[in-house]
Write a structure and sequence with these properties.
This protein is mainly β. Helix content is 0%, strand content 52%. It is built from no helices and four strands. The chain is rod-shaped. The two termini are 21 Å apart. The mean pLDDT is 83.
Length: 62
């Protein structure tokens, strides 16, 4: 007996990531500066969504 309906819109989650860094030294290394930028963006995460009891299910992965 099938207890859940399939979701044809499901796909693998995707992540894009950017990491940029710069190291600077001044005065023969007595003064150092480090700058970093990091960004991570994840799309298409899976979540459980509640379904109405009237259609016979409790939740669905979306």
């Amino acid at each position: 007996m099938q207890t859940r309906n399939g979701n044809v819109n499901l796909k693998w989650e995707t992540t894009t990531q950017t990491n940029v860094g710069v190291d600077l030294g001044f005065l023969n290394g007595d003064l150092n500066l480090t700058l970093d930028y990091f960004n991570k963006d994840t799309k298409d995460l899976l979540w459980r969504r509640a379904l109405p009891a009237s259609i016979g299910g409790t939740n669905m992965t979306v």
